[in-house]
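User: As part of a screening pipeline, I want to sanity-check one entry by hand. Below is the sequence and the SMILES for zinc ion. Please return the complex as structure tokens so I can compare it with the automated output.
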Amino acid sequence: MKVYLSFDYELYFGAQSGSAGICIIEPTKQLLALAEKHGIYLNFFIDSGYLLALEKYSKRHPSVAYEKQQVYKQLIELSEAGHDCQLHIHPHWEDSYYDGNGWKMNTDRYRLDHFSDVQMQEIITSYFNVTKNISGKAPIAYRAGGWCLPPWDKIQDTFKKLGVWIDSTVYEKGFSEEGQVKFDFRNAPSSDQWMFEKNPVEPDPVGYFLELPISSVRLSPVFFWNLYVKGRLNRSLHKTIGDGTPMAQPGTKKKVLTSYTQQALSCDGYYASLLVSEYNSRTKRNDDTMVVIGHPKAQTVFSLQKLDEFVSTVKGTCTFARYSDLQLN
Ligand SMILES: [Zn+2]
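Assistant: Here is the complex for your manual check:
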């Protein structure tokens, strides 16, 4: 089995973005130390709009110039250490800005399809270029911000031109219509990879693109009661390292506390407690791949312990893979 540990490298997008040092640099350092200890590779999906915003505002604000220097230095280091830097697009950076004190997120246009066809192409191309220029390697894999996949027919030519041929956004049975977040993977195949052409959830054996879906897990309300209660009772263990606030998604908390929900398999916070059992059930099913999503900002003391335990437990029986490994074949 191949296990892809993938991390969306980004700030928070709510009222408080949090600081780069605490949301990104510090927890990523801890993840890199863990990877080095075990001799494994990680995959980072870099919030590329943020990189362009750092470029733009560093000219006017010394504090952003410092932030840019720290972030770029880390990206170069992790890329040189062999970890992947792939493409993650949150187009609301087009409308967000630095006001002298912090980042002001405007998420009115949160999804790529909130923009015109030409703007979508320009966003994808410029975000791709900045990621390539800083990491020194051209991304080949894409993950949509907030799972909000754009209409593929409108962007597939741009991705083909850039050589981006892998999507890793879909998770089986995933669905949301909360605020600006909209995605529907309920028709996605129950498979751990497939080729596609026009739509990431519709397999096409002769398609140009590979979907490497994030592993999906069905969770009971009990899981979330535990998550919330444990978070309150033992804050030092379960408090997220990042110091920002997530974008509001009204209704989500109530939904997960009252009904079974389908979630992307994550190594963030309390979710990391699921890794070993989910790995075991996939091994039993003879799955070929397991894709885990995570965020440096959402790591906790607990999640880093659990991730360390997970890697120790399974590393003799699987490969910790990179998306870029697929390019060689
Ligand atoms: Zn993201």
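Points to compare against the pipeline: The chain has one domain: 2-328. The longest strand covers residues 2-9.
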